[in-house]
Specification:
By secondary structure, the protein is an alpha+beta fold. The protein has 13 helices and 17 strands. The longest helix is centred in the C-terminal third of the chain and has 32 residues. It is globular and about 80 Å long.
Length: about 425
């Protein structure tokens, strides 16, 4: 870390401790490192905005040293402890936030490791560098007391859905390749990811008129299907105009729980791996198993699932069922349900663009491909399932926006107090 010695760091920490305990200048008034935290039911997501522009823009020497110390730890490691991971391939460079140019880093760890995370933050003395972290998700409430008592740090709660939408819109505005869909999703030879531009006025496989295309990037309205432990469906009509319209308890938690029970899986990643090598047709009862062919009168192809897990009702069938086939059936059941819920919500709101996000899609391309197939089936080929590269990080990114707003508000309050004090002196 060029230009900063160990003595500089120790002096910096001592100075912060002194100022933090001062009744004259509370540390919460200093500019803070910009973090966003989304503490979900299964996974916690942390984003860090690292300024890369002229370091002379730092308001204080403390901010400069603080930034470099955090940068050294976070950006020179790809793993933290036993379970923390930095997704280096997702990092976004040259992003402007609050008139600063920098890089957004993306880090994740299991939520059940939150106590370990709190201990790590305390040991690294990061608590001396930031008095407030903006957080969302259920864990922002569940772990608030521990974080505030152990770290003397405030967890500023941000609305979960508001953070999600803000995060999507921020990243979509700076990453032209954020959105994509699958062509021929279940054809292993022809399947390919295709970039989709938000500026196109519609998202339908039958739409060829792009006269609505603009240069503004994100277009309204659109449906967001957030797949985490459960599923939430939002209709977004504008930057500040959105609402939750539907949801389902059959999401990532259901899939993982079912695989733990049926396949003895110890992790989400193991469940996905098993599913990728299985065949649900050995487990699910198809239309052709009932009718001997397609049910043309109602438009059901012969390979349509008629009854999930319908073939394992006998002891013999259960004995012959493989872990891989069971996991694949669990995944097909989950994605078919999500696709149906999403399309019903989109049809109800008369919206074409349907975007799927959430950590259920992380390291899980088979789920995205199955969702693509489900959307094609339920919409009779009129709509495509859209996906975003940063999947489950949008809530944490949305917290950055909230934190910047709070920082600016505090700055204005300090300036107002300073002006009032000067006027009183005069």
């Amino acid at each position: 870390m060029a230009g900063i010695s160990n003595d500089d760091i120790q002096n910096f920490l001592s100075n912060l401790e002194r100022r933090a305990s001062s009744s004259v200048t509370p540390f919460s008034e200093f500019p803070m490192p910009w973090f966003g935290l989304d503490i979900g039911g299964t996974l916690t997501k942390l984003v860090y905005f690292e300024p890369t522009d002229d370091k002379g823009n730092f308001e204080t020497e403390e901010e400069l040293l603080s930034d470099r110390m955090i940068q050294r730890y976070l950006t020179t490691n790809k793993a933290y402890g036993d379970s923390g991971v930095r997704d280096e391939h997702l990092e976004l460079q040259n992003v402007t936030i609050n008139n600063r140019i920098g890089t957004i880093h993306f880090i994740r760890f299991p939520t059940n490791q939150m106590p370990t995370f709190i201990t790590l933050v305390k040991e690294k003395e990061f608590t001396l560098m930031s008095s407030t972290v903006c957080a969302t998700g259920g864990g922002a409430i569940k772990y608030a007391k521990d974080a505030e008592s152990e770290l003397n740090m405030q967890l500023l709660k941000s609305d979960e859905l508001e953070s999600l939408i803000k995060g999507i819109e921020l990243i979509a505005s700076v990453n032209n390749e954020e959105c994509y869909y699958y062509d021929y999703p279940l054809d292993n030879e022809r399947c390919r990811k295709v970039s989709w531009k938000w500026s196109k006025g519609c998202c339908s496989s039958e739409c060829t008129d792009h006269s609505q295309a603009t240069d503004d990037g994100l277009q309204y309205p659109y449906i967001v299907v957030n797949i985490g432990s459960g599923v939430s469906v939002m209709a977004v009509y504008g930057q500040h105009d959105f609402k939750r319209i539907s949801g389902s308890s059959i999401g990532g938690g259901f899939f993982q729980g079912l695989c733990c029970l049926l396949c003895g899986c110890d992790s989400f990643e193991e469940a996905v791996m098993l599913a990728s090598h299985g065949n649900n047709r050995n487990i699910d009862k198809l239309v052709k198993d009932i009718y001997g062919r397609a049910y043309d009168n109602v438009g059901l192809p012969e390979d349509t699932v008629a009854a999930s897990f319908g073939k394992i009702c006998s002891n013999e069938a259960r004995e012959n069922a493989t872990r891989e086939d069971l996991a694949h059936s669990a995944l097909v059941t989950t994605t078919n349900n999500i696709g149906s819920v999403a399309l019903n919500a989109a049809n109800h709101c008369k919206i074409d663009r349907i975007v799927f996000v959430g950590n259920f899609l992380r390291v899980n391309p088979i789920a995205a491909r199955l969702l693509s197939k489900a959307m094609d089936f339920w919409s009779q080929g009129t709509k495509k399932a859209l996906f975003l590269q940063h999947e489950g990080y949008f809530g944490a990114v949305g917290c950055l926006d909230k934190l910047v707003a709070v920082t600016e508000m505090r700055k204005k309050q300090r300036e107002g107090l300073s002006s009032s004090s000067s006027a009183s002196s005069d």
